[in-house]
Amino acid sequence: MTPKQTIAIIGSGWGGYNLAHTLDTSKYNVVVISPEATSAITPLLASAACGLFYSQLAQEPIRRKHLDVQYVKACVQDIQFKEKTLICQPAFHSLKDEQFKISYDKVVVAPGCSTNTFNTPGVDEHAFMVKNVNDANAIRDKINENLEIASLPCTTENQQRQLLHIAIVGGGPTGIEIAAELTDLFAGDLMKLYPHLRGKASVTVHDVAPNILAPFDQKLSEYAQKSLEKHKVEIKVNSHIINVTNDTIETREDGKIAYGILIWATGNKQRPIVDQLNVMKSNHGLKRILTDDRLQVLALDGTIIPGSYAMGDAADIDGASLPTTAEVAVQKAAYLAHSINAAAVGRTIEPFKYQQRALVTYTGAGDGVIMGRRGHEYTGYGAWLSWRSGNFFWTRSWKRKFMMTLAWIMDWVDGREMARF
Ligand SMILES: Cc1cc2nc3c(=O)[nH]c(=O)nc-3n(C[C@H](O)[C@H](O)[C@H](O)COP(=O)(O)OP(=O)(O)OC[C@H]3O[C@@H](n4cnc5c(N)ncnc54)[C@H](O)[C@@H]3O)c2cc1C
How far is the CA of 164 from the centre of ligand 1 (A)? Predict the structure, then answer.
């Protein structure tokens, strides 16, 4: 009997996690290498940050009972394609000077992207990002802290308004959904518990573009802006942030603006491992690894590097320009699992084809926007319902679906958990 081949997957996000769970482990040894032992369910992070349910529900652990996948908590620093070896560094501060190698037969590169700060001074030190559950928890803790400071007898009204001013940079779906969840939170449970702070909380969204929600058409973008403004979210488009301190952002247009919490939800930047690789990459905007339409990595001369694949936000198909979304990552992971499983029995499958699904964004107070596949557009309560039910679609285990339903019922009966910390 021929020994099983080893498939090394770099990254445990939407791409890596889904692939690891669908590869045929009776035919392959599957190894996932990632600094994160869980996979964030990113569409749920805004709700988790605002206490709609326990934040643990917004992530799935890589290690699962009955799942024959090896997990290695490390960062891949380099890929030696010729030797089929990964150079890894343990993801533990105490072991940061150690290195080890992992050999593979096939490698799948899916390290995602990090948030792009556009080198704006002060952002790394003072802003909260929204990439994983730790980030959601940090935002949630900061909201609670600021509410309590604002409630001290020695806090002036001006200080209260500043502490409760949340500035969000980035008017894409992530920034808008956080703004929406925050307005729900401030208008609802929190003001029942902090009646002395009523009318003092505010949310502002800054975007450098002339419209928010760039992936949506202009009509829906304008609808979303009006819906948010109706619920007292201030939208500042054409707003360029040039500097950030611990309590102010400075914009080219309006000068210094005081804030209590700053959330940075702008575009994507390639990870260091992607920078490091000497392969073909997109030549404008975000530098993504280019693959053919079977997701095989292309060398600088355009030939395929044998046994290497890339997907998710870190990669794109040459000439395709697919969006950096979970939707694309999930479809590519399903395709790759099918393709690699088929290869084990000597079959090849058709090239990858992306199926565009509806785009949905929540705008607060039971409202939202949907841009469907064939130009169908919806707004209002139906869009909200579709967004909420999407949470079930994104959640990957029955256990979490059940716990989330329970959390919603408890919120409705007894108020959000966040309001009780
Ligand atoms: C708040 C938020 C909400 C979103 N909502 C939606 C939505 O509603 N719909 C939608 O379609 N998309 C949404 N997205 C986008 C979606 O999350 C991304 O497109 C998706 O996560 C990309 O998947 P990925 O596997 O490529 O990368 P990721 O999910 O980012 O995972 C990358 C993994 O690689 C690991 N890694 C990084 N560097 C290394 C390394 N050197 N070695 C090993 N591992 C490494 C990371 O730790 C991480 O585990 C949202 C994103 C955010 C941040």
Answer: 29
DSSP-assigned states of every residue in 76-123: EEEEETTTTEEEEEES-GGGTT--EEEE-SEEEE---EEE--TT-TTH
What pLDDT is stored for residue 418 in this prediction? Answer: 66
Distance 57 CA to ligand 1 centre (A): 16
Please name the amino acid found at residue 252: R
pLDDT of residue 421: 47
Assess whether the C-beta atom of 261 lies below 6 angstroms from ligand 1: no
The residue count for the chain: 421
pLDDT of residue 419: 58
- pLDDT of 400: 86
Q: Please, are residues 381 and 366 in contact by the beta-carbon 8 Å criterion?
A: yes
At the top level of CATH, the class of 123-266+358-420 is alpha beta
User: Do 233 and 204 touch, CB atoms closer than 8 A?
Assistant: yes
Amino acid at 69: V
Residue 394, phi then psi, degrees to nearest 5: -75, -35
Residue 141 to residue 193: CA distance in whole angstroms: 16
329 in ligand 1 pocket by Cβ < 6 Å? yes
User: pLDDT > 90: what percent of the chain?
Assistant: 78
The pLDDT value recorded for residue 404 is 87
**Which residues of 131-265 form beta strands (DSSP E)?**
165-169, 202-206, 233-236, 241-244, 248-251, 255-258, 261-264
pLDDT of residue 175: 96
What are the per-10-residue average pLDDT scores of the chain (421 residues)? 91 97 96 97 92 88 89 98 98 96 98 96 97 96 96 98 98 95 87 90 96 91 95 95 98 97 95 96 94 98 98 97 95 98 95 92 92 82 86 82 87 73 47
Query: Could you identify the residue written with the tokens 């109706």?
Result: 230
CATH 3.50.50.100 location in the chain: 5-114+268-343, 123-266+358-420
Place of tokens 């929540």: 362
- Round to whole Å and give the CA distance between 193 and 199: 13
Q: Which amino acid is at 201?
A: A
Q: How far apart are CA 28 and CA 68, in angstroms?
A: 10
Rounded to whole angstroms, the Cα distance separating 371 from 224 reads: 12
Nearest to 184 by CA among 392, 41, 59, 362: 362
Kindly state if the Cβ of 170 falls inside 6 Å of ligand 1: no
- Report which ligand 1 atom has the smallest distance to the Cα of 271: 38
In which element (H, E) is residue 268 found?
A: strand 268-270
Q: Considering the domain delimited by 5-114+268-343, tell me its CATH architecture.
A: 3-Layer(bba) Sandwich (3.50)
